[in-house]
Amino acid sequence: MTAYLGAGAILVPFKCPSAVSIDSVRPSRYRTSITGQVWGQRGPRSRRQWSVDLSTATPAEAANLQALVEGGKPPWVWVEPYAQVTNLLSPAQSVLAAGTWSGTGFVEGGAVLTADGVFSPRSVLHPTGGTVDFGYRSGDMDRPAVVPDQIVRFSAYLRGTGTLRVSFRDWAGQILKETQASYSSTTLARASVASLPPAGAVSCRVWATGALQAALPAFTWTPDLAAWSVGRGCNRVSVDGLSEAVQLAVADSPALRRSAITFMIREVG
Q1: What's CA 55's distance to the chain center, in Å?
Q2: Strands (E) located in the chain
C-alpha cells in the first residue's frame, strides 16, 4: 500500500514503508506512604513518533517524500498504511475523549459494552436524540483526510434512529458530495456508510443524526467494514532526521539506482 504525507490540497504519495514502528508513552508517578498505601498520578499520553524505514527505493519512489521534506512547511497530515485499514481517526477521537466530538444536548455517558461485545471506555448521550459530530481535536474540527478514487468507510456504534453521514470537502472546506446511510437500533449497534470521494476532495465531515447514544467511531480507506480498532491517524506531524544510504548507482540501468531511506515522524501540536 501507498503511504501519504502532506497538507492542504495535496497528500503526497510515496512508496509503502518496509517498516513502521510507533512509540508513545504515558508518564506516571507513584508515591508510597509510611503506612504502605500507594497513590498514583497518570499523565496524558505523550505525542507519538514513528520510525519509518524504506529498505530500498528508486529515486522516483522517494522523490515525492524528499521534495516535501526539503521544501514543504509542516505541520503535515500523516497517513500510514496500517492506519488506512484500521482507523484513521486519532486515538483520542476513536474513544470520544473530551474535545473530540461536538453535539448540542449531548453529555458524557461513561463506559459501555456494545451489542457485539466491544468495550468502549466512553460514550455520549442525548435524552431525545440529536446530532453529534466526530473528528474534533481540542474542540476544533479536525477532518479525516481522503484522496480521490480511494473508497472510504465511516462507522460508529449508535443507539437510536437516524442517519450516519459523510460530507466530502475541498481544500477551502466547500461541500463536494454527501453520502448517508440510515440506522435504527434499540441497543448500541454498529452502523456504517461507504463512499468514493469525488475529484478535488481532501477531507470530510463525519456525523450522525438522531443518536440517543454514540461510541467508538472509526474511519478507514477500505470497502469492507473492518473490525473496530483504536485510532492510528494523525493530522499534525513534522519530519526529522531524513537520512539516505546509497545502495546502487549504475549509470546504464535505471532499475539499479537505489537507496535506503530512514526518517522520524513526530506528532506536534
Answers
A1: 25
A2: 3-7, 10-14, 19-23, 28-32, 38-42, 49-57, 76-79, 101-102, 107-108, 112-113, 119-120, 124-134, 136-137, 140-141, 152-169, 175-195, 203-220, 234-249, 257-267
Output the CA–CA distances (angstroms, integers) from residue 246 to 20, 64, 239, in the order listed.
Answer: 20, 17, 20
State the residue for C-alpha cell 522523490.
63
**Within 10 Å of residue 235's Cβ, how many Cβ atoms?**
23
Per-residue pLDDT tens over the stretch 28-78: 677 887 777 877 776 666 789 999 999 999 999 999 999 998 998 999 999
DSSP state at residue 138: T
Q: Is the link from the previous residue into 217 a cis peptide, with omega within 30 of 0?
A: no
Joined grid coordinates for residue 241: 532526521
Torsion 139-166-112-124 (CA) sign: positive
